[in-house]
Specification:
Helix content is 75%, strand content 0%. By secondary structure, it is mainly alpha-helical.
């Protein structure tokens, strides 16, 4: 199956907004916590900004990795066991459940993990630029 650029990268604007909001909030929390730990006459070192951008970027890489392996069905066993425990009268067997989930994935949007990697890469690039600035000014 052939996919276009928009099929791969622009299929879920909501997920991009959520990822960006998560990363911005996480970065802000890290910067604010670093600022509150300073003494009154100190300024925040640039390395703290590097860390504040790289940590959310790598967290988004982890979320994207979990989403990637989940899109291949790695967590279907856990999902089935939780559904079976929640609904004691689940009539469907494991094999039927796996087939149903596989069909749902085929009907769904392709590449659900891409927004995590794109936004994570954006934050890692910002962190790398800040790190280059830090190293060249030393």
């Amino acid at each position: 199956m052939k996919y276009s650029f928009s099929d791969i990268f622009l299929h879920s604007k909501t997920k991009y907004i959520i990822c960006l909001a998560f990363a911005i909030c996480f970065t802000s929390i890290l910067i604010i916590s670093d600022i509150t730990a300073l003494k009154p006459d100190e300024t925040l070192p640039l390395i703290n900004y590097v860390n504040s951008f790289s940590i959310p970027g790598f967290c988004l890489y982890c979320f994207g990795g979990f989403s990637l392996i989940g899109s291949f069905g790695a967590f279907d066993t856990f999902s089935y066991s939780f559904k079976k425990k929640k609904k004691n009268n689940l009539k469907m067997g494991y094999y039927e459940y796996i087939n149903m989930k596989s069909e749902e994935r085929k009907k769904g949007k392709p590449f659900p993990y891409i927004p995590y990697f794109v936004v994570g890469t954006l934050f890692v690039i910002v962190s790398s630029v800040l790190n280059i600035i830090l190293v060249t000014n030393m």
